[in-house]
Amino acid sequence: MIEWGVGSIVSESFQQALILAVASILVLLILNFRNLRDAVLILIPLALAALFTLAAGVVFDEPMNMANVIVLPLIFGLGVDNGIHVVDRFHGAGDVEHLLASSTPRAVVLSTLTTIGTFAALMLSPHDGTASIGMLLTLAVALLLVCTVFVLPVLLSVVVGDRSLDAGGRLSQT
After folding, report:
1. 53-62: long-range contacts at Cβ-Cβ below 8 A with a sequence spacing of 24 or more?
2. Cβ neighbours around 141 below 10 Å, total
3. 2-173 has which CATH code?
4. Which sequence spans correspond to the domains of the chain?
5. N or C: which end of the chain has fewer CB within 10 A?
């Protein structure tokens, strides 16, 4: 009975942590980009990665528990920087083609791969809880990478549209 009560408290605490993390990130993104559209576009790949991570947990029989429930808030905290870099470069480049030709995607991939390697090492832990966290975080960060590098540029192209330079060297909508 005590264990069930503690589990309930931990579960509620991490739900609150997830809500606070997402709300804080949203506010900071709005302040940084000065619009809701870019903030939401950055959050979409994070939400997709979280959803796919939960689905993979079911497929791989790795359910959320008191040890690995921390993965969900971490997905948002770990992944938001990649989205910021991609959106910022998109606005500077003007279109997805120039974004993808820049150094930003390569930098995002390399930095994310180092994070994946770090969390993959946790899977080798003899402690089941730590190994579970390592497995889910490795998967989650890999999904973040895929969603940020492939899904976010498509969203930007569809929602914002490609722009080109006008005669004065300013970006204009096409």
Report:
1. 53/136, 53/139, 53/140, 53/143, 56/139, 56/143, 57/136, 60/135, 62/132, 62/135, 62/136
2. 26
3. 1.20.1640.10
4. 2-173
5. N
